[in-house]
Design a protein that fits this description.
Layout lengths: L2 H7 L2 H22 L38 H7 L30 H5 L38 H4 E3 L7 H5 L7 E3 L2 E3 L11 H11 L11 E5 L5 H6 L5 E6 L7 H8 L3 E3 L14 E7 L11 H9 E10 L1 H4 L3 H16 L3 E7 L5 E6 L5 H5 L46 H4 L11 H20 L12 E4 L6 H5 L6 E7 L6 H6 L4 E4 L12 E7 L2 H5 L4 H11 E10 L2 H13 L3 E5 L3 E5 L8
Parallel strand pairs: 4-5, 4-7, 5-6, 7-8, 11-12, 11-14, 12-13, 14-15
Antiparallel strand pairs: 1-3, 2-3, 8-10, 9-10, 15-17, 16-17
Helix pairs in contact: 19-20
GO molecular function: methyltransferase activity
Subcellular location: Endomembrane system; Membrane
Enzyme class: transferase
Length: 603
């Protein structure tokens, strides 16, 4: 009997056949949606993952469709997967007058009070609560609004989002920031560049033409950055600056920077190394940054030497450079002796038209000077003392050795920007298969970002500015976004393979971090957090609920979490995020897209 006749006569046999057909479909759908899949082996990159698809699955039975259109079968596969229910957690708000700006590892006042000394800025360093405190969610400042879009945000932000007016009074004569109505306005000045960063940067290039912004100089470090106008305006010159400052009496300066959409990070040169790799930055800048470079045997300046690449520049603009009172003269003499002993060369010492002076040092490009020093002081570091993953690592009182290749030659400077982004990074290991893996990783991230992330996950990308990759690998995700108006903080977890040197060599920026602890940033400072197969290994070390609370602290209301992972991990995260009142969607059983709401718990 034909199918048409069965349908016409609606016989009992037809009903039975139809029932069995629908039953088979329901069983198939159950196994697809229940997550009963083989767990994927964790690796930070996509390269070599034949078990992970970075493009839409195909179907041999799909009928031809017009270009740019999806077939019915493909549309069905794109539908959202069912999500698990929320965990039953009675959330409470963080309390206290500073709760809206709470940073757990920097605001541990019990630990800070127990410090035997604060002489070396110990109280500005990390002191994570142990055991972990009761979980709480940071409240919103009263009147909080969605941040202004980039590039408008570089010049103005909402006052209610960062309601800290002290800097307006402290720096009223230095063109840092003004309050105008319901906004803070940033004229682009600073203590040492009242006429603006553009004039200041042009003066530096004119003084030392080899400092070619956006070509040879791509990644910079601005120490004691204020509101980060130096780094903010160098973005126009294709320079990516990591602006750092402590959480101190200069109220919320890093929060201002991140609200403006400028790369910034809470950090201090105290007793521990900065969370950057050796030989990372092309240039380091300090304009009245209030760091005593010659203190404690010169450890702060030796730390700059560690993170500055061979041949890199240090620009120091401060009163000891151009004033000759007794105190400044003493500091200048001490720093001069130290830089000479470190084999740094003075390439320029000058003063601009406003009477502000600066000195520009250059780190040596070969080790011959070290061998010719009359005294081995400070000494060269022993190879065993050098830890590239700098995480709670004490400052060294020795000179970090220059990096050498397998032929014993000092590793050369990367090619100029933008070619260094796609060139093979100099620190890349040359073991068999590594280079091919790196290239494949870049190709897959390019495809995944362009074909899936930007086009098929229904994420509000145009509203973004600050993005963080929670486990960045080689930086492929950030590289795939390079032509869009975002910047990416590339995080290399300390318990994974160290790839941060490669990220910097490509002309990108990032930090080391342990996601079982809080990140050094203010609440509500990132528009999107992204991860790729991070959470399985992380869940073996700490509670994912605590990680979820930290994600909630970092992401702005309306911002997103984008997770590429196994369905098992996605379901665990979904239950946590739903309890935090995030909206959650799962795509193709491998992408979690979650958006934070304005909801906050009440007391």
């Amino acid at each position: 009997m034909s199918l048409g006749k069965l349908m016409k006569e609606r016989t009992f046999g037809f009903a039975l056949i139809l029932f069995l057909f629908l039953f088979l479909i329901s069983i198939t759908f159950f196994f697809l949606s229940s997550g009963k899949t083989v767990d994927l082996p964790y690796y930070f990159s996509l390269a070599g993952r034949s078990d992970v698809s970075t493009t839409e699955p195909s179907d041999a039975n799909d009928a031809p469709v017009p270009p740019g259109k999806d077939s019915p079968a493909l549309k069905a596969r794109k539908s959202n997967f069912p999500t698990p229910p929320a965990l039953d957690i009675a959330w409470r708000p963080c309390e206290g007058v500073l709760a809206a700006d709470y940073i757990p590892c920097l605001d541990n006042y019990k630990a800070i009070k127990r410090l035997p000394t604060r002489r070396h800025m110990e109280h500005r360093e990390r002191h994570c609560p142990k055991p972990a405190p009761l979980r709480c969610l940071v409240p919103l400042p009263k009147g909080y609004k969605r941040p202004l879009p980039w590039p408008k945000s570089r010049d103005m932000i909402w006052y209610d989002n960062v309601p800290h007016p002290k800097l307006v009074e402290y720096k009223k004569d230095q063109n840092w920031v003004r309050k105008e109505g319901d906004q803070f306005v940033f004229p682009g000045g600073g203590t040492q560049f009242k006429d603006g960063v553009s004039n200041y940067a042009s003066f530096i290039h004119k003084t030392v033409p080899i400092i070619h912004w956006g070509r040879q100089i791509r990644v910079a470090l601005d120490v004691g950055c204020g509101v980060a106008s130096f780094g903010g305006y160098l973005l126009d010159k294709q320079v990516l600056t990591m602006s750092i400052a402590p959480k101190d009496e200069h109220e919320a300066q890093i929060q201002f920077a991140l609200e403006r959409g400028i790369p910034a990070f809470l950090s201090v040169i105290g007793t521990q190394q900065l969370v950057f790799p050796d030989n990372a930055f092309d240039l380091v800048h300090c304009a009245r940054c209030r760091v005593h470079w010659d203190a404690d045997g010169g450890k702060p300046l030796l730390e700059l030497n560690r993170v500055l690449r061979p041949g890199g520049f240090f620009i120091w603009s401060a009163t000891p450079v151009y004033q000759d009172d007794q105190r400044d003269a003493k500091v200048w003499k001490s720093v001069s002796a130290l830089t000479e002993a470190m084999c740094w060369k003075v390439v320029a010492k000058t003063m601009d038209s406003t009477g502000i002076g600066l000195v520009i040092y250059q780190k040596p490009e070969n080790p011959s000077c070290y061998e010719k020093r009359p005294q081995n002081n400070p000494p060269l570091c022993d190879q065993n003392d050098q830890h590239n993953i700098s995480w709670y690592t004490p400052l060294l009182n020795c000179i970090t050795r220059l990096p050498l290749d397998k032929q014993g030659k000092v590793i050369k400077w990367p090619v100029t920007w933008p070619y260094r982004l796609s060139s093979l990074p100099v620190p890349m290991p040359l073991e068999p298969g590594v280079v091919e893996q790196y290239k494949a990783d870049n190709r897959r991230w390019t495809e995944l970002v362009s074909d899936t992330y930007l086009m098929k996950l229904n994420i509000s990308w145009p509203s973004f500015r600050n993005i963080m990759d929670m486990n960045a690998g080689y930086g492929g995700f950030a590289a795939a976004l390079i032509d869009l108006p975002y910047w990416v903080m590339n995080v290399v977890p300390v318990h994974e393979e160290d790839t941060l040197s490669i990220i910097y060599d490509r002309g990108l920026i990032g930090v080391y971090h342990d996601w079982c602890e809080s990140f050094n940033t203010y609440p509500r400072t990132y528009d999107l957090l992204h991860s790729s197969f991070l959470f399985k290994t992380l869940s073996e070390r700490c509670d994912l609920i605590d990680v979820g609370v930290e994600i909630d602290r970092i992401v702005r209301p309306g911002g997103y979490l984008l997770v590429f992972d196994t369905i098992e991990m996605i379901n665990k995260l979904t239950a946590i995020l739903k309890s935090l009142h995030w909206s959650v969607k799962i795509h193709q059983a491998q992408y979690l897209v979650a958006q934070k709401s304005l909801w906050r718990p009440t007391s």
